[in-house]
Amino acid sequence: MKQYNVGIIGATGMVGQRFATLLENHPWFNVKVLAASPRSAGQTYEQAAGSRWKMAVPMPAAMKDMVLMDATNDIEKIAGMVDFCFCAVDMKKDEIKALEEAYAKAECPIVSNNSAHRFTPDVPMVVPEINPEHIEIIKAQRERLGTKRGFIAVKSNCSIQSYVPALHPLRKFGLKNVLACTYQAISGAGKNFETWPEMVDNLIPYIGGEEEKSEQEPLKVWGEIKGNEIVKATAPNITTQCLRVPVSDGHTAAVFVTFENKPSKEEILKLWADFKGVPQELQLPSAPKQFIHYFEENDRPQAKLDRNLEGGMAVSTGRLREDTQYDYKFVCLSHNTLRGAAGGGVLLAELLAAKGYFD
Question: At the top level of its lineage, which domain of life is listed (predicted)?
Answer without folding.
Answer: Bacteria
